[in-house]
Batch of 2 targets.
Target 1
Amino acid sequence: MADQYTWGLILGAVLGLVAVYNLGLLALYNLVMRSKSEDNGADSLRKTPTTALNGECPFDADVIVVGAGVAGAALANTLAKDGRRVHVIERDLSEPDRIVGELLQPGGYLKLIELGLEDCVEQIDAQRVFGYALFKDGNRTQISYPLEKFHSDVAGRGFHNGRFVQRLREKAASLPNVRLEQGTVTSLLEEKGTIKGVQYKTKAGEELTAYAPLTIVCDGCFSNLRRSLCNPKVDVPSCFVGLVLENCNLPFENHGHVVLADPSPILFYPISSNEVRCLVDIPGQKVPSISNGEMANYLKTVVAPQIPREIFHSFVAAVDGGNIKTMPNRSMPAAPYPTPGALLMGDAFNMRHPLTGGGMTVALSDIVILRNLLRHLSNLNDAPALCNYLESFYTLRKPVASTINTLAGALYQVFSASPDEARKEMRQACFDYLSLGGIFSSGPVSLLSGLNPRPLILVFHFFAVAIYGVGRILLPFPSPYRFWIGARIITSASGIIFPIMKAEGLRQMFFPATVPAYYYQAPPSN
Ligand SMILES: Cc1cc2nc3c(=O)[nH]c(=O)nc-3n(C[C@H](O)[C@H](O)[C@H](O)COP(=O)(O)OP(=O)(O)OC[C@H]3O[C@@H](n4cnc5c(N)ncnc54)[C@H](O)[C@@H]3O)c2cc1C
């Protein structure tokens, strides 16, 4: 009986979705038209030069890469392997110790394989991750990544970010055509609207300039250099508080754990054979003070009672250990000013809420797209052709990057607690929908994992969850109040997802082939 009931709901959900989809297409058409007119207006935002330079530019390298984090170091490897001379300038070459970029989704691992960098997750005690476990109000459900059709090696990886970054850097530095130098880039050198290189300060304090036909800025989420290359609209919806739990067994081995807590989600995942990363989300930009003990008190009194009982003691021990770090969670849609001679990559270019651990996957996917484009262009001094390729890159990356970005923003809102009845229902519907298994869990998790990040599949599952939530409310005894809540679930779902997709750029996300830059791929040069 229970099964028939569930399937009845699902059938209703699918039929409802077809109707919603038709309406959605109409709405999309209007929004696409609006985003088109916004695209046309982007030129007026172009900024004035950062630094004027007179005379000829002697080119030291084919490409300058600013920053050797995940994006910069992977990019340097990739371009150098294609024969480019790459000059990487990194502010601090010592091993980073951060709470970011510690779970690489399987889709990101596939990109590492495409780039020939999969060995960089070896010898760092990285842990395989096969899916997620979700916890809500004492209930739990397991969601596996759909990995059946991939090689047995393909899975997520949890690791220390610094160890992974050092492996990428070492690998890049071992290539004869890479020059990896410690230094801080202070400005971009511009001449007649074209970026010709960078000005930087070496470790010894010397001010130097470096020139190349292409400068790729990968200076991360706090980027100082992005301002002249894009229109940065940074939002900080929340902060993560990071702890490390030692020698603790997670309830679901080799899985990420997401607790749908109040006020917002708590994450756990393995980062080595004896360490588990815990990230506690705190909405807003202010967190309790660590120094005066407010943070420890908050973690023990508000957070600890909500976490799975199996890891309660390890969590409290980690709080008592005192190694607590915080980091703002930023999101920023990509809004580049196409600039000859320069490109942004990684978090400098585009950010999303880290709830879904999508940042490294987007960065690696972008690198694959750029590498494939630039392979057609042997001479980077061919400025018009290079410019066309860079504009193509902005369009070609959109379907994958925007799907991962939109999912992260939408899921963060759905997974956070809310006093609003419709939002509460949506949150419960999401948990129950994912618990159904089959396509209802594999579809959404294939988006999240980067294994199949497609915009239409995202919209389909998002509204299927909403319609499932409406069905749960209306059956078996609909009432006017329940109809009202049902309607509010749909409007609330639309209110969550459409603004994020609009900011991502609906036209490039859903119809990239209608954007002229999609076809800007100059014929191969000699
Ligand atoms: C709390 C949190 C948790 C996250 N968790 C995950 C996760 O689990 N999985 C995931 O995929 N993503 C995660 N992310 C996102 C992920 O960390 C980023 O997408 C990824 O690190 C971006 O790499 P990047 O190379 O662009 O930036 P970074 O890794 O930050 O590298 C930037 C580099 O540039 C250098 N630099 C900066 N300025 C200069 C300068 N002026 N000159 C020279 N060098 C400079 C820095 O020293 C640094 O090495 C998380 C983000 C946050 C905030």
Target 2
Amino acid sequence: MNRELVEQALARWSAPIPPALRADFDAYHRAQSLRFLLLMNLLGQAAYVSYVAADYLVLPDIAHESARARSIFLAITLPLTLAAMRWVRSIHLLDMLLPTLILLATLIWFDLLARSQMPAVATYIYASMIFIVLANLGVRVDFLPALGLSLLISAAILHGVLRLHRDDPQAVMVFVLVYLPMLLFSLFTSWHTTLSGRRAYLHSVLDGMNRQALLQANEKLHALAQTDGLTGIANRRQFDEQAQLFWDKARQTGKPMALLIIDLDHFKAYNDHYGHQAGDDCLVRVARVLSEHMREGDYFAGRYGGEEFAVMLAPAWPALAGAVAQRLTQAVRQLGIAHAHRGDGLSVVTVSIGAALSSDDGVHGVTDLIRCSDALLYEAKRSGRNGYKVAPRPLS
Ligand SMILES: Nc1nc2c(ncn2[C@@H]2O[C@H](COP(=O)(O)OP(=O)(O)OP(=O)(O)O)[C@@H](O)[C@H]2O)c(=O)[nH]1
């Protein structure tokens, strides 16, 4: 979703929901408002039924009829409400359930009042205000349909009042004067509630976008902090973390790990003759060989620093470490990167490797392992380069 669209919608006073977000808006409101709508409907029905007590007090002549009508009303609307809240997916329909039932309740109530001969009817009609207030307070999502239903409820109330005060226009006028502010107040409330609902939703979309962007930026930063900028493989920081993990696992499983330190041979001469940029390209190609060389098993390749790389594998034994070191030296040599100025008779870029194992004598931690690999690398260099040394038994 386009962030600008959401911001534009929020900038408009009516905060319209962009079409692309409507389905999500409905789902959001269903989750937010379903419980409220259910409670409002149940409370409304409970209040409607409880007015039977008032009828027995002030309109005893229609109290029985009222009790029957209200009971029938409840018998229909209660299961209907529960079923609608359970099965109806559309939050718009659920939102309109309460005003619709209130319209029905209004019609029934005025019909009952019209049958009563009690003088209290003239004042009791003012209780009808509760219908319009409740209808509008219960609205969460759609103001316009709520407005339509409010007008219908008001028409039903006015029709009932006119019927009861057929010969008393002054009483009708007083009722209307009292009723109108109540109607406007409750309409304002439902307009404000629905507008706030849209705004809250649009803000939640923006918050979600912000969180997502932050998450992505964090992931990117994390990757950058762990990756070597030149070669794209793991950097020293990540290598150190992984070395400790490899070490811990080796101790837990009792199976040794191997650490291979890989150093380019005569790389200073390469840089001096082919230039620093060519030196960088050479490092990138060697890094690719190391990182792509083995895909299965616990294998980890990183740039250790400068023209030095490191590879870890687990579990590892001297023979396996030797075999991997041999394959790696061979693979780099086979890249065939021309190096005519190394001065030892060879004419391509090669590497020397020192490989130590966690099971070697005197190795008690990652630092010892690195020290041993370094010492073996030094031996490999001294033995003429383009080769490897593995402890405890030199293989070449
Ligand atoms: N192009 C390039 N060169 C680098 C980079 N990091 C280190 N080097 C170079 O690698 C060279 C390493 O040189 P030395 O440590 O003298 O080792 P060597 O010439 O490879 O000799 P031996 O290791 O004994 O075979 C130096 O010239 C560094 O400048 C890098 O990121 N890019």
